[in-house]
Amino acid sequence: MSRAFPLSRTTGPVSEEERRTILAAPGFGKFFTDHMASATWTPAKGWHDHKVTALAPYSLHPSAAVLHYAQEIFEGLKAYRHADGSVWLFRPEFNARRFARSAERLALPVLPEEDFLTSVEELVRADEAWVPSSPDEKSLYLRPFMFASEAFLGVRPAEQIAYSVIASPAGPYFAGGVTGITLWVSSNYTRAGRGGTGAAKCGGNYASSLAAQIESRKNGCDQVLFLDDTGGEGDLEESGTMNLCLVTSAGELVTPALGNILDGVTRDSILSLAGEFGLTPVERPITLSELRSGAADGTVTEVFAAGTAAVVTPIVGFKGESKGEGYAFTIGTGTPGKQTLAIREHMLDIQYGRAEDVHGWMRRVV
Ligand SMILES: Cc1ncc(COP(=O)(O)O)c(C=O)c1O
User: Fold this and answer.
1) Which GO terms describe its molecular function (predicted)?
2) N or C: fewer beta carbons within 10 Å in the chain?
3) Which residue of 189, 308, 343, 351 sits with most ligand 1 atoms within 8 Å of its CB, as the best mutation to test the pocket?
């Protein structure tokens, strides 16, 4: 049975005027709403102290396990306001299930999926005024997370765990129109190995991706493309915060198979939608040389990345290094692909209630 997250309203909310200024240009991850949802877990009491309260800093002992051993997981999803003022989540059940799988991998207690959903929904209801209005692709980004808060310097699963959800208004990802990006194919760094945490959404994965991100910027690229490191010449995995999809001249939408990568909700949804664009969805390993030769001979017609933040980001080129030699190649004409842009628009139309939700993906909150 799901637990309630009772609301104690803040006595010091951000003024309406300030909130309006923030919502006019929220950017990403810079501003936070008035409340947070939370719950605590201990072996003796299980999950308890469910609540929605004023957003406030934590008080953590310097020995808190998360600060030393990174026993932590998180999620990311958005609330969208439709033209009639209602507020909706996109497939939050998918995030709830993925959060449970991440918890198991990081030896954290599983939060019941219903509690995940209730915490997110109650926070959105409490901070409804922070959900920006459509139609300009703004949203309220929701960040559920869980970490080892126990004060103990021993390497074992912690016995006091904090769960919270915070919310941050987000602006349109491509404010000046959708542009294509170039990926740096990292040969110095990998993101995940067999048996590692690649499929979990844990902070450590992102910490270890930052050096590669710096390398990609130094080489004039926008993001990293990670390769599999388990032998062979390296299968394509994913970008720093997005899954990878290829469109081929044979009418396929190909994406790397699950295993060491994040099971993205955007990736999964696009696989379901592929048929509507005349594309056959295919999940399989893709090698770097297949991508390079496909780009050269035109069998790979479009490439894009998929994730909650940007929905769909066209990838127009790749750069990398092989045996000490730099290389670079473009996809098609080096501009965003037609199918890519059409899929992006369709996903946004579903999320903002402009297209019929035939898959039953949207969940109304307000
Ligand atoms: C490593 C990684 N891959 C893929 C994704 C895309 O996942 P989703 O579509 O669920 O946002 C994300 C974003 O959360 C990510 O961090």
Assistant:
1) L-isoleucine-2-oxoglutarate transaminase activity; L-leucine-2-oxoglutarate transaminase activity; L-valine-2-oxoglutarate transaminase activity
2) N
3) 308
Q: What is the pLDDT of residues 23-76, one digit of tens each?
A: 999 999 999 999 999 999 999 999 999 999 999 999 999 999 999 999 999 999
Q: Domains of the chain (ranges plus CATH)?
A: 16-170 (3.30.470.10), 181-351 (3.20.10.10)
Q: Is the CB of 119 under 6 A from ligand 1?
A: no
Q: Looking at the predicted structure, is the pLDDT value of residue 233 above 90? A: no
| Token duo for residue 27 | 């950017």
- The pLDDT of 338-353, averaged and rounded, is 97
Q: Is the CB of 242 under 6 A from ligand 1?
A: yes
Tens of pLDDT, residues 210-232? 999 999 999 999 999 999 977 65
Residue 270: predicted pLDDT:
98
Enumerate residues 6+ apart whose C-beta is below 8 A from 286: 235, 236, 246, 254, 256
